[in-house]
Write a structure and sequence with these properties.
This protein has 13 helices and ten strands. The chain is an alpha+beta fold and 389 residues long.
Amino acid sequence: MINMYEEEREITPELLSELSRTLTEKSRNVIETITNLMEVRERVREILKDLGALIKLEKSVRKKIIGYAIDSSFVQVLPLVVGDFFIVTAGYIRYPRLQTKDKTKNAGLKVGVRITNNISSSLRAISAYAHIIERKIGLDLVKKESDINAILIDGPIIPLYLYYIPESRLYDEEKQLINITEKLIRSSEIKGITLIGVVKRVRSRFISKGFKRLLEPSLKDKFNKLLEVANDKSLGSLVLDNSEALIFGRPIGTTPAYESIVTEEEYGGIADRFIKSHPWAQKMDFAILKPKRSRQVISVEALDYAKIGFEDILTWINAHATHTGCPQILDYVDRYVQISSGLVEIARRLLIKIIAEKIKEEKQFKEFEIIELLLDYADLQKKYAPRMG
């Protein structure tokens, strides 16, 4: 009998030796990056603190946040003979939980499924499709609920990379994502509900670009190295102490938020036009925060239509964050929507069963083995290993 699970490939001495040699070569680059960061971190901290942009957060929360955390999850496409198959889950969890028999008041899920031969089954398009379902959930909650003051999003309110892509080069899903996000923003403004985005995988360069005018004269030749090697996750994690935040302001005028976005080489002009043509973007507050229980920083953005106060939002996140850096409710919703590779295979088999039953009922044809053929893996040689998003 064939084992369902392939045994892990044996790590041969030759493979281990080659791996060790390659890692030794590459380690030089990593050492250089670490050294460059260590050389400037104290000076960067000193400059930002003197400026008043680096602040220590209060211990107590002055205003409570009551609302919903929303998130989505997806698996990179599963190539089948008939086309690319992928699943998206999105859901919400309420904070604080209500005492009610109506389960939908406290949590809910939606599932999106696609089978497509379209080239736009790229990671960008799939990610946008997942965010669309997520934003639809947020929009529904904003319209329905009257006793909340916030929607927390696991991720940015709108992905920053969309600022830099001309509309003609956007996937249809990305255009739809911008449209549905703007509907969510408009409804939140009308209802007085604050939108808060919490980003764990921080890859922006807001610190080095936003504060360039101050950092460059002080760091001199070290600044170019800093610009080259330091993203906000690495530099912020070194510069900030726990319970500290770095405030960038809003993308308008000469604020660090605006400077960091529009100084992107080649694409800064596109981002500038995006900000000017989307007034809500000029009202968005940005910050990097190192929560008290985390070793790493997160980035936080907010459209504060409930007038909670941006520093109070950061204080609330700091008080409720776990070791992941996220408020605990976002950790909960992240687990709630998570997709396993097993679920994808169950979905594929279930789809075969449903299609076979429908064709049998409608008596379209009798060659049922064709269904299994077309819904089989396109590449039988490779074991399916999904990438989660």
